[in-house]
Structure formats: C-alpha cells, structure tokens
Design brief:
The complex is a heterodimer of chains A (187) and B (273).
Chain A lengths: L10 H19 L4 H17 L10 H18 L2 H6 L13 H19 L2 H12 L4 H8 L3 H24 L16
Chain B lengths: L3 H16 L3 H18 L8 H48 L9 H8 L17 H5 L17 H4 L11 H5 L6 H19 L3 H14 L6 H15 L2 H14 L6 H6 L10
Helix pairs in contact in B: 3-4, 8-9, 8-10, 9-10, 10-11
Classes of the chains: A mainly alpha (187), B mainly alpha (273).
Chain lengths: 187, 273
C-alpha cells in the first residue's frame, strides 16, 4: 500500500499517526535496536488494535502505549531471533555524512543519550516522559503507576542531575554547547 | 555564551529529533501497518479479551493464595527448626567461650564470643546517601490542607536549596537534597494538582503562589507555571492567563510543556494583555 498524504480517516489511523513517533522513541528508550524499531512499533500498535475495547478511554493514549511498548520491547529483547530473521535484508543504516548541523545534532543527541542511559531506571523513565515527551507530572504518575509526589520528586532529582551535566559540559567547554541551534522541523 | 536553559533545550531538542521518525517514515509505517492489519485480519475489538483477563486474574489470585499458604507453612516449620537449633547453639556457644545472656540470640552470643573469627563481621547495612536512596521519598499525603498556614517570614522566604543551579557537591554525587524543602515543595505542587482535579482552582492558585514565593527558581517551575495557567483559565482570569503565557514563553521557550501552556485555554474575553 503506497504511503498516503491524505489526512487520517479513521480513529485508529489517527491514533497511529499521532503516536507513532512516541512509540518509536519509547522503544528505543527500552533498548530496542534502531533496525528493529519499526517492526516492534508495528507489534505495539497491533496489540493496541486488538485491545482497544479493554482500554480505559479516560487515560492518555500515551499512557497505554508506554505500557504496551515496555512489554513488547521486553519480549523483543528476550527473543530477537525472529526480528533478526526479518531484518536480514535490512541492516542498520550507517551514519550518514551530512551537513555540519546534522553532525552537531547527533553529537548533542549522543550526549543526552549517554546521560539518560546513566540514570537509575526510575529517574530515567520520569526524565524521558517529562523532558522528551512533554508529559505533565499527573500524566507521568498515571503512566508509570506512581504517586504524584513521587513523580515530582523523581523529576526534580533527574533535572538536578541534568543541570549537573550541563555544568560539567560548560566547565569542559564541550563543543556540543557551542554549536549552532539544530535545524527545526525534522522530516 | 548561551543561557543555561538554551543549552539544555538544544541538547534535548537534538535528542528528540534524532530519536523521532520523519513524517514520511510515519506515513510509510502506517501503510505497512494497514497491510499488516488486513493480512492478519485482526479484529478491531476483541470482545473475549476482557473475559480472559478476568479468568487470568482469578488464576493469579489463586496462585498467590497458594503461595502465601505455602510460605506460612514453611515459616512455621522454620520456626520449629530454629527453636530446636537454639538448644544446640547454647551448648556450642559454651564451647566457644560465650554464655548466652538473658534474651540474647545464639548468633549474638557467638559474635560476642568470637569477634575476630573467620571472615569479616557482618556490618549493619548503612543508609548511604545515594541517588536511589533519595529517589522515592516517603511523602506526606498530598491532600493535606496547606491553606491555613500563615505566611511567616521563614516559611515564605525563598528556599536556597532547590535552585536551577545544581549544587557543586550534588554534581559529585555526595550531597543529598534537603529533604524538608523537597517535601514542602512536593506537597505544595501535589496540593495544587489535587485542588485542580477537585475543581478548586482558587485553592490550587494559593498553593502555587506559595510555591512560587518559596521556590522561585525551582527545578519544577515549568510544571508550576503550567498548573498556574490552568488554574487561571478555570477562574476566567483571562488577562492574567495571557501574562502568564507570555512569561512562560519567554522563560521556557524550548520546554516540552510549552505547547500545553500556550493551548491550555484561550482567553475568553479581550480584557487586555
């Protein structure tokens, strides 16, 4: 089926289009390798499609998708043989040489990636949901099944650490902080 | 040199960009998804899943009950064995040079008697001030009313600890946050959210304003300001909404909450900025 630029015409398509990027980022967050993210994201949406009737409509869709993605990613990591077979023809794309700003953006992303990976899991989830996905503290609490106070305290601790990273980068005059702003409007 | 917030925003924006598929990738993925749904003939709604879910829950509950019973039995058995061994230990302690004191356990007697025996003595598990230890604070109930507290100079003075700037020792991983201020901050924010959820924006605003006075440079200032805009919206204070949104935009330009702050509500009237 060829890709279409037409606006979504059915609720599930709208859901998919709105949250596909979120699911891809979440799967990467849960350790799914880049080459497999697309396939695993499809699994996530397949589960969602089959379980639509069970889902609580009062909850943010990202809250369901986070939980589904966590489980699907876990299953994927435990048994990647099937995904590996599926990807025999599609190896991970090599880093593309590009304009300077693209390299700069990747360097910045790498710094954040290293920071996120180095966080304790509890802080990591909250930091990513707040800073990358833009969730509010009540939404984070609902998504992770934690109390609001806990979401706030974890977020504050994670931000303290991030501020510490920035200070270290500045002290080391890291090149990534001197670079021009990344270009807007990816894709 | 860039402002601190700009540095953070640039890093996070780069991470978001690199981790996100393009619009074209998303459309292609949807095409693949649609083909997959058609191929698998996946039902839109699985009516049986709720019933299966209930059956699963019953099975899990039964297993849990069985496990608890087995554990209780095992503990009872363990207790009987321990009592039997205690009698034997008493004789062994005498051999090691120690006589159990009244109420003392056989192990304590043995340790007292042979302090420098083989292997290191077991140290009590210290509560180190690690990040994990401070991660889950035992917070007071968020619904505790914060209203009546008068604005004492101490209570309302800006807190020094929770600043945007990390403390030097914290970066080294040795300093723990000031628990009292952390608790107070969390309580104010949680009280505001609870009040908003309960449809009481006035009370939410009171908590948020107290938070702003005590923690002006809080690391959770973005969350506070979004909640404040929401409360002002609910109260129909449109002019203040507009001002708060402008201030948010200026202070947290790259915040992932920016879109929400801007779209929280549209001013209902045109009563000035």
């Amino acid at each position: 089926v060829p890709p279409s630029n037409a606006p979504p015409t059915e609720p599930f398509e709208a859901l998919f289009m709105s949250h596909y990027a979120f699911v891809c980022r979440t799967l990467a967050h849960f350790g799914v390798e880049a080459a497999a993210v697309e396939d695993v994201a499809q699994e996530v949406f397949l589960v969602l499609h089959r379980r639509l009737a069970d889902l609580d409509p009062s909850r943010d869709a990202r809250s369901w998708l986070w939980g589904i993605a966590r489980r699907v990613a876990h299953t994927h990591r435990r048994g990647t043989a099937r995904a590996r077979r599926r990807h025999e023809h599609a190896e991970a794309p090599p880093p593309r040489p590009g304009p300077d700003h693209e390299l700069e953006t990747r360097e910045r992303a790498r710094i954040v990636e290293a920071f996120v990976v180095g966080l304790p899991e509890k802080l990591r989830d909250v930091f990513v949901l707040a800073e990358i996905e833009g969730m509010s503290a009540p939404e984070i609490g609902q998504t992770l099944g934690i109390k609001l106070n806990t979401a706030y305290s974890r977020l504050r601790l994670a931000r303290e650490r991030f501020a510490g990273l920035l200070e270290q980068l500045r002290a080391g005059e890291n090149a990534a902080l001197r670079l021009a702003e990344p270009t807007e409007g990816h894709g | 040199m860039a402002e601190p917030d700009q540095d953070a925003e640039r890093l996070l924006a780069a991470y978001r960009q690199v981790r996100s598929p393009s619009d074209a990738d998303t459309r292609t993925a949807w095409a693949g998804m649609r083909a997959r749904l058609e191929r698998d003939d996946a039902p839109l709604i699985d009516l049986g899943s709720r019933r299966r879910s209930l059956a699963t829950k019953v099975a899990i509950a039964a297993l849990a009950l069985a496990a608890i019973l087995a554990l209780a039995f095992a503990l009872d058995l363990h207790g009987a064995i321990a009592r039997r061994l205690a009698a034997g230990d008493r004789a062994e302690a005498t051999y090691q040079g120690g006589v159990p004191e009244r109420g003392e356990t056989p192990r304590a007697t043995a340790e007292r008697a042979g302090g420098d025996g083989e292997g290191p003595a077991e140290q009590p598990r210290a509560r180190t001030p690690s990040a994990d230890a401070t991660t889950d604070l035992a917070m007071p109930d968020a619904t505790v009313s914060l209203e009546p507290a008068p604005a004492t100079p101490e209570a309302e003075s800006p807190a020094k600890a929770p600043s945007h700037k990390p403390r030097a020792k914290r970066a080294g991983g040795n300093e723990v946050p000031d628990d009292a201020s952390l608790h107070a901050e969390m309580a104010l924010l949680s009280a505001a959210q609870s009040a908003l959820a309960a449809g009481n924006p006035e009370r939410a605003l009171t908590s948020l304003e107290r938070h702003a006075r005590r923690f002006p440079d809080s690391l959770l200032a973005e969350e506070r300001e979004v909640a404040r805009i929401r409360a002002l919206c609910a109260l129909g204070r449109d002019a203040e909404v507009a001002t708060a949104r402008r201030r948010f935009d200026a202070r947290f330009r790259g915040s992932p909450l920016r879109g929400r702050a801007m779209a929280e509500c549209e001013p209902k009237g045109d009563d000035g900025p």
